[in-house]
Amino acid sequence: MTTLLLPVYLRIKDVRKTRPSLNDVAKMAGVSKSTASRVINNKLGNGFSVREEVRQQVLNAAKQLNYRPNIFAQSLTKHRTRMIHVVGGQDALSDLGNIYQTIINEATKVLASGSEPFDVTVDMLHTAPDTSELPSWKIDGAIILSLCSPVTMTELTQGQIPYVVVNGPCERTGSSVVPDDIEGTKLAVKHLVELGHKRIAYTGPRTVHMVGHSSIKDRHGTYLSELDKFGLTPIEGHDQILHSAHNFLETAVVKNKATAVITYGHMEGLNIMQAAHDMQISIPEDLSLISFCDEVASAVMSSKLTFIDLRSREMGKIAAELLLEQIESHSKAEPQFIKVTEHLIVRNSTAQLKV
Predict the structure, then answer these.
(1) Which domains does the chain have, with CATH numbers?
(2) Tens of pLDDT along 41-66?
(3) What CA–CA distance (Å, rounded) separates 170 from 172?
């Protein structure tokens, strides 16, 4: 056993020993360590300059040696790390086409696009409520997806670290970006009413994980108030978690004659669509279906679902811009609450009610 492991250990030790340093880059380029550092970190100016020939020598040396700055060591000595941390990244993997995937992608594009781009790290751990979700290294700011632990929020506020919450509640010290679920639900109900539907059902999320989120209350509450405005009666099951799409359709459509369904999200919509196929309920001929979704998730669905676009691209973009504004102003910019307007995207899962 020892003879097999020894060569592996030696190779690992050699890799660590030969990892290129800033000194190695400076030596190969024939410049001082401080000059190499300024060139690599793009810190020229303020009375310091080098010839283009020298700058290229340093960059070429770094490339040949495959040198990468130790950003964690830098964070210990610099006031500005140019590092952003995303809290709540585990939610981005919870569902196909989850809106947080789009939000992270769009925010990262903005943060990485400037003349001095930011590095972005994402927390993917399921941490306990009394545990910090911030990294051990310094960060310039944070984006929180939906929620964070009280410990995390305390660290952000006490450390005066700029942060933006996306699709969730926010303390007075930070900014937030949320979709307008109330207006989105109004669009969904209005669309179905204009198609002649009077028996409109609603289903909540598939799991209790989301219970307590403002979207649950806003979408369900608006469904009830909008039906009341149009003189319509809610369909049994509207206040339930979607444990079984088949059972829901049995109650709402077969028993209570619903001709249209609004689902909390696109995964619930897909579940209803599959169950309807199994039960020989044709969409949209027998049942119109509309869900809350975003353009990225909807693009990968083979069945073109009519949906309320949550505009997650816009939320990610706005969140990154708000965070940059906070960072550049040294937290002097006023925290903002931005509500993003949702859009109705009509496709082929809703149709005029047959008389």
Answers:
(1) 2-69 (1.10.260.40), 83-179+312-340 (3.40.50.2300), 181-310 (3.40.50.2300)
(2) 666 555 567 788 888 888 898 888 88
(3) 7
